[in-house]
Amino acid sequence: MRLLANLLNRFVEKGRLNVIAADGSRSSFGSGRDGPDVTVRFTDAKLERELFFNPELISAEAYMDGRLVFENGSTVYDFLLLFSVNRKGLAAHPVQRALRRGWRALKRWHQSNPLGRAAKNAQSHYDHPPEFYRLWLDSQMIYSCAYFPTPESSLEEAQEAKLRHIAAKLKLQPGMTVAEIGSGWGALAIHLAKLGVHVTAINVATEQLAESKKRAEAAGVLERITFFERDYRELTGTFDRVVSVGMMEHVGVTHFDAYFDKVKSLLKPGGFAMIHAIGRMSPPGSTAPFIRKYIFPGGYVPAMSEVFASLERVGLWAADCEILRLHYYWTIRHWRLNFEAKRPEVVAMMGERFARMWEFYLAAVELGFLNGSNMVFQLLLANERDAVPVIRDYIVDEERAMAGGAGA
């Protein structure tokens, strides 16, 4: 326990972590103030050493495998909240600093997403049965950051508001053509098609595409949407608008230029694009090992400096940038609570280990948007200086008009 105790003494300052070792001995770390009081039990002695060398990955795996057990009413959310309020102390430990340097050195290899591998990486997350996601997402199955008019808005209201917000930014006219890169379960394509445009929607996740077609047919707009199972690099043609929501996170830093160059080439003269993605307000980093291994292989949340450097190299105008800060925290909190309410059904469908993995993931990312550096950005990009209206008031005007029409 000596090695792990050395780490925990330096790491846990706020709140308290009570550890029951495999031999029954007990230790406590932290002040007990300004954070949760969490009790964990180790089921085997090897776990102590493993946690010292890679706590972020091993704690997740140990919980998934039942080797790390929460006691006295503690939960995985409490444990990760304790971590999130003490994250600076963990990163400052010499062993952890060295580990992070290694991750950064391997960053380009971790995020390599050539054709073929990119599809497999995405499918590993998105091609679970639609019934699983239906348990805890909103009725439109939107799996990206919502837009909350108020923190008290329901998830349904906030996701509908997000669709309006994006449509307003796109400033659409009936008959326009729109390319959607990464179309999820089809909610945005359906929403835009109802406004009278034709959408070419691409995705590499087979299950999502099949579900999207069903939903578009049920909505009566399938004739205005063309769905393709295709990588963004394989999309051809030109469009009045390009939109991409929650896709850039899967591109990988070595492919940013190719991604933005593809967006650039898809735009008709006078057209523009809207990119919605998770970013970080901190300098460039690496993907956490648990997320990289189990949740989003090949994924990376970029620093804004990496995004704008790529835009400069490619030669796209950044006509507008909006930063959504707490919106994803509120979104994922809804998802996590919905997931908890449906946990027995998740276990019956996917198994206990999978349910634990998803619990850890949802809690970790929720807290990353509350106490970490993560946020969401929305960019408007164009080849021409004046393709996007030069006064952004049009977004509010369009959005209010759409909301008024929806309520009529």
**What percent strand?**
15-25%
The succession of helices and strands, N to C, reads: HEEEHHEHHHHHHHEHEHEEHEHHEHHHEH
Alpha-carbon Rg, integer: 22 Å
| Helix content class | 40-55%
Derived structural class: alpha/beta
Mean pLDDT: 92
pLDDT < 50 stretches:
none
Please characterize this protein's 3D structure.
It is a single chain. This protein is an alpha/beta fold and 408 residues long. 48% of the residues lie in helices and 18% in strands. It has helices spanning 2-11, 46-53, 55-64, 76-85, 87-92, 94-105, 107-110, 117-126, 130-134, 155-170, 187-193, 206-218, 256-266, 289-295, 304-314, 327-341, 343-350, 352-370, 393-407; strands at 16-20, 26-29, 37-42, 68-71, 177-181, 198-203, 225-229, 239-245, 267-280, 317-324, 374-382. Strand 1 (16-20) and strand 2 form a beta hairpin. Helix 16 (327-341) packs antiparallel against helix 18 (352-370).
Brief descriptors of the model:
alpha/beta; four-stranded mixed β-sheet; 408 residues; seven-stranded mixed β-sheet; 19 helices
Quick structural summary:
With 408 residues, the protein is an alpha/beta fold. 48% of the residues lie in helices and 18% in strands.
